[in-house]
Specification:
The protein is an alpha/beta fold and 426 residues long. The chain folds into 3 domains: 10-59 and 115-128, no CATH class; 161-240; 251-420, Rossmann fold (3-Layer(aba) Sandwich). Helices cover 39% and strands 16% of the residues. The chain has a 6-stranded mixed β-sheet with strand order 7-6-5-8-9-10, with helices on both faces. Helix 9 runs parallel beside helix 10 and helix 10 (355-367) packs parallel to helix 11 (386-397). The chain is flat. It starts with 13 loop residues before the first helix and ends in a 6-residue tail after the last helix. Belongs to the UPF0229 family. Pfam families: DUF444 (PF04285). InterPro entries: UPF0229.
Amino acid sequence: MSYIIDRRLNAKNKSTVNRQRFLRRYRAHIKKAVSEAVGRRSIKDMDKGEQIGIPTRDISEPQLHHGQGGRQTRVLPGNDQFISGDKIPRPPGGGGGGGSGEGNASNSGEGMDEFVFQITQEEFLDFMFEDLALPNMVKRQLSGNEEFKTRRAGFSNYGTPGQINIIRSLRSANARRIALTSSKRRQIRALETELEQEQEKDNILKDPNKIEALTSEILSLKNRIKRVPWLDDFDIKYNLHAKYPVPHSKAVMFCLMDVSGSMSQATKDMAKRFFILLYLFLQRNYEHTEVVFIRHHTSAKEVDEEEFFYSRETGGTIVSSALYLMKDILSDRYPLSEWNVYGAQASDGDNWNDDSTTCSKLLIDEIMPKVQYYSYIEITPRQHQALWEEYESVAKTFSDTFAMQQIVDVTDIYPVFRQLFQKRTA
């Protein structure tokens, strides 16, 4: 049997490199398992890791080996049936089989379970929100306390010891020494030439006093050069860093949920699942995103995250109360010059009398011109009612920024969520 050994160099953290390679190779299996896990999980376990099972047949590695057949001229040790020269019939079939048992049920032999491994919370969320993005996000005017990024901005004569640039400092010191001693070195070269000429004269013509004077002057100049410091405070250069503002896109997401009496507990749980997915997506991918939670029945109220997901308040149904509150909060706290505005609304479609017409008018006249994207999901197995029909007119007017989908059961939540926030190519 032949073995293929991969001797390519890995990074220091070899196990991490191998794990990432494994995750890339079986991405399709993992994404399918993540999609199924989202549907069966409870609300509290939505952001935890997951056990992924891959069928053994999908992770089997190819094996290269020699098959049976060909001319064989050897006799195996321990043989008591054949002698050299006997002809043995070729065994039927082709190459030798090296397969392993599958995990399928059978009445003979043993099988192998599927390969199961654990992905972390980070990896689970990466696969869950892959290729998703808030649509139409643009950079707005910066205001207030902004982020700054430090960049190199040359060199300075002042700084801390940790910012010393050694190469620049040594270069400056060398340049200073050359500048301060160049004239003296020229004088030394001239005096040495004159001393050499004087020493080459005949003994009669030599002037010992002149030779002594030249030697003394050369020695004096060399001592003066030696007294030039090798490194001076003036030579030390420091790396200079400057802060530059980092442009970022601030966004606010309005989450509007119907908690009226027509919404059964199962319907409310599906709405909460959708908004938890949305909340996790925003928290993970957008640092500068604020979330405004609005619950409504006959009246609307802004609440915090805990009350939004776990309160059991109920009542009648007036959907426009949530839209009016969203409009007021938007005008008071989120100027359009600074914020990208998004909205997500979940309801079962029931509404009070003619309030659906008021909702569509509010969206068309007041809200949709100010938002980057608005999504409406209707959680009901029944036929659509007046609210859906009114929202269809909004979708026709704002076809690029308004989207609506229906959810019938829990398994529809994740596919609908991905469809609403799928990353769009420019």
